[in-house]
TrEMBL record, chain A:
Name assigned to this protein: Signal peptidase complex subunit 2
Subcellular location: Endoplasmic reticulum membrane
Alphabetical list of InterPro entries matching this protein: Spc2/SPCS2
Low complexity compositional bias, start-end: 202-216
Gene Ontology, cellular component aspect: signal peptidase complex
Membrane-spanning segments: 43-61, 73-92
From TrEMBL, chain B:
Record-annotated membrane-spanning stretches: 131-147
Entry keyword rRNA processing: no
Family, similarity comment: Belongs to the peptidase S26B family.
Protein name: Signal peptidase complex catalytic subunit SEC11
CDD domains in the cross-refs: S26_SPase_I
InterPro entries assigned to the protein according to its UniProt record, in alphabetical order: LexA/Signal_pep-like_sf, Pept_S26A_signal_pept_1_Ser-AS, Peptidase_S26, Peptidase_S26B
PANTHER family in alphabetical order: SIGNAL PEPTIDASE COMPLEX CATALYTIC SUBUNIT SEC11
Reaction equations catalysed: Cleavage of hydrophobic, N-terminal signal or leader sequences from secreted and periplasmic proteins
Amino acid sequence: MASQERIAVHNLADLKNTSDDAIPNYLNSLKFKQDHRLIDTRLALGYSAFAVAAACFAWDYKLGFDATKYYTAAAVALYALLNGVLTFWISFVEKGVVYQGVAPDGTKISIATSTKKNVPIYNVKITVTPKNGSPPETIELARSFTEWFDVQGHFIARPFQSVFATAVPLIAKADPKRAQSSAPVPDFLNADADVLDAIAASQSTTTSTGAEATPAGKKSKRRKA
Amino acid sequence: MLSGLQNPRQAAAQLLNFGLILSTAFMMWKGLSVFADSPSPIVVVLSGSMEPAFQRGDLLFLWNRNILSETDVGEVVVYNVRDKEIPIVHRVVRKFGTGAHARLLTKGDNNAADDTELYARGQDYLERKDIIGSVFAYIPFVGYVTIMLSEHPWLKTVMLGIMGLLVVLQRE
């Protein structure tokens, strides 16, 4: 699980990837049903392109260049086409979507995330499409990674989940406990290492990245920090 | 990085990224081959036989289509000799006849004699099909690293060692 692993806090890609991975963990634990169609299409396109290249390599290796050059030309064209479609798919269809799914009540949710180079802000765009056909609603968030990573690079699930539960009514409905605990986020940057270790230990044993309730006693301990 | 491996789709996506780097490099090479109609459109000069035109380590770009004119005397061509692995870069100095079966004789600018010695046993001349391309552009010296690696195999070990060390140190 992401919460037990430490990352380099100055590595923006690590910050984003760890956070991205935590979204499906959290929402799936709330009985959301994840839809994998986007990544499956991407994998299908990519692996067919790779298969074309592998086949081209095989016949070129076995039969030589001159005997196969028209097939090779066709393979190069097909490879360029597949890669073009793949690039189009990633940049215009996926557009940074890290989660698509359906809530227990049938509402569709789609979450896209992005970061700007050298800016430790997590930009989240959440699109909620109600079941009854009313127009989709978009919620945009821009939150600092320091809200859910401590100085040592531990991912802390609770504040991260609160961000989503507080901002999105659909998630709040599925996980009311996180939505209520929208108390000020502890200041990890100024906390000392021992306190953070204690927090991380209590977090990883009780909550991991799921959404189980945490006993109230532990909550007050965190506030003191 | 490793956390992605727990999810089969993410593992597949990471593997794909790596595979696409390899396959794209290969397909670009093949695209260039098809475009230039040559099995090996870029070669490195291995010998000094074409000095002062080309030095060891020069990178040559080949073109193997006769769109405007036939391959003719004065062109620097790369040819393969039957049963020999390494292609040779020399200049066409004589041509008898025209078309696909014209007889071509080649010679290195820096060599005293023509290439009849280098051809296969019983072969006295080249035909167009032996040639894999005419040189149309070159970059001096940048191919020298491949000569270094093939002449001093221990350099490959050193390079692998340095790469391995970097991987260990960077923990990536």
